[in-house]
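Hey, sorry to bother you again with one of my protein questions. I've been staring at a protein lately and its backbone has me curious. I owe you a coffee for this, so here goes:
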Amino acid sequence: MDSGAAAGSSSRTNRSTLERERRMRLRNLYSQLASFLPPQPRKMSTYEMLEQVTVYVNQLRKRVEELKQMKLQVEEECREMRSGPSLISPVINITELDSTLEVNLIAGMDTKFALCDIISILEEEGAQVLTATYHNTGNKILLSFHYQAAYSRIGIENVGVHERLKRLHIS
């Protein structure tokens, strides 16, 4: 008979231990769930917390969807900008560097001109081209020419070079 009483009490302690562990697990789960919510000014009941979390998670889902749509729009606009015609107006800059001069041209990809035409203009104006560099960056073309006067006594008229390059129909 003692063995039956001992077995009954051990099964009761077993059940109470299981129930205690179950409550602890639920408490931990509720705590994790509450951590998803922004800080609350007052303590909420479990039911209120579940309602708040449900509403908050749905709001976050909507916000994520909005952000995904916005991202797709921005990516599409970027693709269109890269593939579409460039609206960059050409920029011509002439700088004097000691005995040499530098011409920098920045133009859009849709700009039509020939590199040899630019070099011809510089040579016709009395320049000897020392270096010419060409760089393509996305939707821009960058050209840089270093030149010096072919005849140092004559020199080069920067205004004339600038005007002729503008007339080349770079724009």
The two ends are 107 Å apart (CA to CA).
